[in-house]
Amino acid sequence: MNDKSYILALDQGTTSSRAILFDREGRICGRAQREFPQYFPQPGWVEHDAEEIWRSQISVAAMVLQTADIAASRVAGIGIANQRETTVLWERATGHAIAPAIVWQDRRGAALCDALSAAGWETRIREKTGLTLDPYFSASKLKWLLDHIPGARQRAGRGELAFGTIDTWLVWKLSQGRSHVTDPSNASRTLLYNLQQQTWDEELLELFEIPRELLPEVRSSSEIYGHCDPAWLGCSLPIAGLIGDQQAATFGQACLSPGMIKNTYGTGCFMMMNTGVEAVASTHRMLTTVAWQIAGQTDYALEGSVFMAGATVQWLRDGLGLIDRADDVEALARSVPDNGGVYLVPAFSGLGAPHWEPQARGSLFGLSRGSNKAHIARAALEAIAYQSADVLKAMEQDAGIAVREMRVDGGAAKNDLLLQFQADILGLPVVRPQITETTAQGAAFLAGLALGLWSSKEEVAGQWRSERRFEPGISENRRAELLQGWQRALAQTLAWARSLPPRQPNVS
Ligand code: ADP
Fold first, then answer.
1. What is the whole-number distance in angstroms between the Cα of residue 87 and the centre of ligand 1?
2. Engineering a disulfide at 216: which of 176, 182, 287, 334 sits with its beta carbon 3.0 to 4.6 angstroms away?
C-alpha cells in the first residue's frame, strides 16, 4: 500500500494563508491559518507584501504537518487555491518582488480602463476574455507596475522580471524559481487570456503593453508542475493542482457537470455555475471564466456576485447595534413569524449583478407602526436570499440550463433560517455539505487526481457529502407574493438612484 496518503492544500486568501491536510478519503486531518497585513497607501489602493504572503503560507504549511504529526514524506503532493487577480512582479535572478503586490480590490487601474472603454474596447475585450473591462482584473495592475516602478519596463524587456498571480508566485517560491506556471482558471482572470484560443492574447498584450517575456506558461489545473524544494518542508513534494479560489470551491462542492451551481455566503456572495465545455457569453453582465482544465478538457463557468451578503449582518451589528454577534441574527429574525411586509435593499455600495447600478443606496420599505428590529433582521437575511436568487435566475437565462439544486458554503451558510428562506424563494433545494472548507478541498482534489490518489472526477464527486438539505416549503402563491414585494422595493431603489443628478465625468 502506498504510504503517501495525504494531500497538502494551500488556501492563499485575501486576509489569511491557510494550510489543510486531507487524507485519501477526503477527510480533514489538520489545519493551520495565519493572517497577514493589508496595506492601504492611498484611497482606492490595496496592497500586500508578496514576501509576507509567501512567509505566512510556508509557515502554515510547516505548522499543519507538525500539529497533525504527519511527516512530509507521507504527503503525496501539494494543491494550491488562491485569491485571484492579485498581481506580483518579481526579479527572476533573486525571486524578490520589485514592488508591493496590487490586490484585486485595488482600483488604481480605473483611469486606464475608462480610457480603453472610451476608445471602444469594451465589447472586443468581453468577447475575447469573458470579462468586463475593469481594474479588478490583473492587466491594468501589471501595466501600472511596468509604468511606475523605475526601470521595470526596460528590465521586463530584457527578460529579467517575471509576472504572476498568487498561484504562480507561490509555485515559483516553492520550487526556488524552477517553475513559472499558472493554470487557465487563474489566467482567465487577467484580461490577457483568450478564452476560445486558450492562450495569452497577442492583441491584448499589445493593448496593455505587456511584454510576453513576463508571462508564465499556462498549464492545466491538475498535473505535476514542479516540486517543492526540500529546503521548505524537509522533502521534495510534487506541486500538482492550481486553481483560483472560487473555481476551487466549485470543484470542492463537486459541481462537476453543467447546470450545477454553488453559492458562497461570505462578506459578499460568490455564485458560480458550471456550464461544461461551452464558454457561455452572458447577456446579464455575468463573467464568463474557465472553471478548470483537466486532462485536456476545459470546463467553463458563469460567475456572478452580490456585494452585500454577510456584510448586511455586520451592518445590523455595527451600524445599528441590533445584535452583539453575527450569530445572534438568526434568533432575532426567528422571533417574528415573517417579515411583516418589511423589505431591505442593502445597496450600501451600489447594486451588482444583474442590476449594475453603482449609484444605488440602501433602502428600507414597508415599515408600519408594528415593525420592530426583528422584522429588520428578517428583512436583512431575506435580502441576501433575494439577491442570490436574482443572480441565479440571470445565470439560468444566460446558460439556458435549469438548475436543480444549489450547494452552499461560507460563513453565513451556517444560518438555517437564511438557507430555508433561500430554498423557499428559489423553489429549489439548497444543500450544505459536511466539509465547508470547499476551497481547500477543491485544490486537494485536483492535486490528488494528478497524483493518482483518486482515479476520476466521479470518484472525487463521490466524496462530497451533504450535511443538510433544505427543501422549499412555501406555496407558489406565497413565493410570488414575496418576490413581488422584493421586486417593488428593488424598482424603487433603482428609481431613486437613477433620479440623481448625473455624475461628473472622471477627468483624472
Ligand atoms: P469572508 O470570507 O468574506 O471574510 P466568511 O465566509 O468568513 O466571509 O463569512 C463571514 C460573514 O458571514 C460575515 O459578513 C458575517 O457577518 C456573516 N455571518 C457570520 N455568521 C452568520 C450567521 N450566523 N448568520 C448570518 N451571517 C453570518
1. 26
2. 182
135 located within any domain: yes
Which protein residue has the closest C-alpha to ligand 1 atom 23?
Answer: 327
Could you give the CA distance from residue 382 to residue 359 in angstroms, rounded to a whole number?
22
Could you tell me if residue 110 is inside a domain? yes
Closest C-alpha among 274, 167, 265 to residue 217? 167
Cβ atoms within 10 Å, residue 415: 21
Q: Give the three-class secondary structure for 86.
A: coil
pLDDT at site 285: 87
Using 50 as the pLDDT threshold, list the residues of the chain that sit under it: 1, 507-508
Residue whose CA lies nearest to ligand 1 atom number 16: 310
Determine the pLDDT at residue 96.
97
Pairing of strands 430-433, 466-470: antiparallel
33 neighbors 67 (Cβ within 8 angstroms)? no
3-state secondary structure of 17: strand
Nearest atom in ligand 1 to the alpha carbon of residue 265 is: 6
Q: For residue 342, is it within any domain?
A: no
Q: Give the chain's domain count.
A: 1
Q: Where does residue 211 fall: left (phi above 0), alpha (psi -120 to 50 degrees), or beta otherwise?
A: beta
Q: Taking the complete model, does pTM exceed 0.90, yes or no?
A: yes
Q: How far is the CA of 454 from the centre of ligand 1 (A)?
A: 32
Q: What is the pLDDT of residue 83?
A: 94
Cβ–ligand 1 distance for 411 under 6 Å, the answer: yes
Structural domain harbouring 235: 6-246
How many angstroms does the Cα of residue 424 sit away from the middle of ligand 1? 21
Q: Is 306 in the pocket of ligand 1 (CB under 6 A)?
A: no
Query: In angstroms, what is the span from residue 267 Cα to ligand 1's centroid?
Result: 6
**Exposure of 314 by Cβ count < 10 A (0-12 exposed, 13-18 middle, 19+ buried)?**
middle
For ligand 1, the distance from its centroid to the CA atom of residue 413, given in whole angstroms, is 8
Q: Looking at the domain assignment, is residue 87 inside a domain?
A: yes
Q: From the CA of 15, how far away is ligand 1's center (Å)?
A: 14
The predicted structure's pLDDT at residue 356: 79
Strands (E), 425-465: 430-433
Q: Which of 12, 83, 267 to mutate to test the pocket of ligand 1 (most atoms within 8 A of CB)?
A: 267
Nearest CA to ligand 1 atom 18: 412
* Side-chain half-sphere CA neighbours of 398 within 13 A: 30
CATH number at residue 13: 3.30.420.40
H/E stretch holding 228: strand 222-228
**Ligand 1 and 415: CB distance under 6 A:** yes
Report the length, in residues, of the chain: 508
363 closest CA partner among 208, 492, 206, 273? 492
